[in-house]
Amino acid sequence: MAASSLISELRSSLTDESARIQREFESTGVGRAALRQRTRLVEEILARLWRDIVSPDPAQPSNFALVATGGFGRGWMFPYSDIDLLFLFGDRNAEQTFKDPVRRFSQELWDLRLKLSPASRLLGECDRYDANNTEFTISLLDCRYLAGDRDLFRRLHDKVIPKLVMRESKALLQGLAEVTRERHAKYGMTLYHLEPNLKEAPGGLRDCNVASWLALISAMDKLHDWPDASSLRAPVRKQLESALDFLMAARCFLHFRHGVGRHRTRRPRERSGRQTRKQCQPPIGCGSISGMRARCSAPSLNCSKKFQKRGQHCTGRCKAGGRD
Description:
The protein has 324 residues and is of the alpha+beta class. It has one domain (3-320). It has helices spanning 3-28, 31-54, 70-74, 92-97, 99-111, 134-140, 150-186, 205-223, 234-258, 274-284, 289-320, and strands spanning 64-68, 83-89, 116-122, 144-148. The chain has a four-stranded mixed sheet with strand order 3-2-1-4, with helices on both faces. Helix 6 packs across helix 7 (150-186) and helix 7 crosses helix 8 (205-223). The longest helix has 37 residues, at 150-186. The protein starts with a helix and ends with a helix. The relative contact order is 0.11.
């Protein structure tokens, strides 16, 4: 299919499906369903572009794989979230061979006004921890296969990441603690804000991620492999799930309500103001400060406090060179 025809078709599909997802969310107020559907929509677009630009066989070529990371890897595609992608190469030859297809693949996504957050790495480079880029290594904890050489992805997932986490667990815990404390400091180390940032403020979505990452790193360090199930204890997991249901719905509402994703140069709004809470009261019930705190802040605050206590302990361990 000609490139212009494919992009036109994908743009039409993206517009129609996005509108349908929004209508369903406005009817039900269920954020998780909107995230699942948005994730599936983006996956379908990526699959079409892969077949058209890289290989008609979604399991090819060898030595090159497309990997979802970060929020996209978790399946957390909010209406106007960035698409976190890793272009993974087995060696330098593959990197050079597919340089132009990667450029075109990325350009087509930008032309669709999808916000791409790409990274390109050799498999061996994923084994290196950079203290100045903790976020990339953390993003690999949520990696998920999309297309290309499945064996290359398995080597990343089954061998490289567990070895990296076992070798660098203390540095990872310390780096995660530091970036989280810096983020908390930006919000005065409290979640009690008139206009809370649902993603980044203490007790928000990012703290839920941090709790899961901490548990996963600790489990992998002990098991020398990926855990079979969630690393979080059942009571903590139940508490987080309740908070996540609300936070996901509230953030979806903000993205849909302000619609800034139509403009690639602007960021989606993450703060819930007084007027916004009044507008989202019917679908998800956050029309008052007290109501919002009751549903979201209390469980998330507990999670945040547990993280800060554990982060301080981990940092102390790292400085002392000790180990639990």
